[in-house]
Cytochrome c oxidase subunit 3
Amino acid sequence: MILFMVSEVMFFFAFFWAFFTSSLTPVFNIGGVWPPIGIEVISPWGLPLLNTILLLSSGATVTWSHHAIVGGLKQEAETALYLTLTFAVYFTTFQFLEYIEAPFSISDGVYGSTFFMATG
């Protein structure tokens, strides 16, 4: 199990490494600028911030549910788990909307591919 978790962390780290390497040293193929010409950057204060809050909240509620299970509080555990599932449905819906409304796609070079691979 620990090997799986470490491999997932390294996998996720690799996407951010690719993104930061590409942004700090843009190559001539993309015009030598970052973000590449023609790419409109998504504001981090809209849906990305809301999705971050939903993810952190779902982490807190699933931890609450776990502690309630350990403490033998079945009703409280169910409430926390339902709240976690509600956050998951909202997060998935908002992530889908963010992908649909993104002004770029996965085929738009290194910016689009690293964005969609790291967030999806």
Remarks:
- Residues 2 and 8 are 10 Å apart (CA to CA).
- The radius of gyration is 18 Å.
- Helices lie at 2-24, 47-70, 74-101, 109-119.
- DSSP finds four helices and no strands in the chain.
